[in-house]
Amino acid sequence: MKADSKKAMKALLTIKDVLLDLGIEDFVLSTLTEDQDGKAQYQVIFGGDEVAIAHILMRLEKTAPEDTKNHIAQHKIKKLFEDLEGDQNEI
Using an 8 Å Cβ cutoff, are 46 and 28 in contact? Predict the structure, then answer.
């Protein structure tokens, strides 16, 4: 996972250009690297309109392995609880 995030982004931009040259306008490209302090660095490039991107992301989640789906669900629940706690603090 340790990689230069700038080089990763440059590679994604190259892949983006290849996809566009092939006539593929709807895509989601993403990588995860680690900076020198061990913090996660995400590089993400979206191509296409909002609807196409949303469909790609939903399809990725739907076709993910079961363990990954469970992990996603746990994060969604955690985020929901955090949002609910935040709402209570505002009242």
Answer: yes
Q: Sign of torsion, CA 31 34 35 36?
A: negative
Burial per residue of 60-80, b for 16 or more beta-carbon CB atoms within 10 angstroms, e otherwise: eeeeeeeeeeeeeeeeeeeee
What is the Cα–Cα distance from 28 to 45, expressed in whole angstroms? 6
At which residue do the structure tokens 């969604």 appear? Answer: 76
- pTM for this prediction: 0.70
High-pLDDT (> 90) share of the chain, %: 54
Residue type, 19: L
Within 1-91, strands assigned E span 27-34, 40-47
Give tens-digit pLDDT for 49-63: 999 999 999 999 899
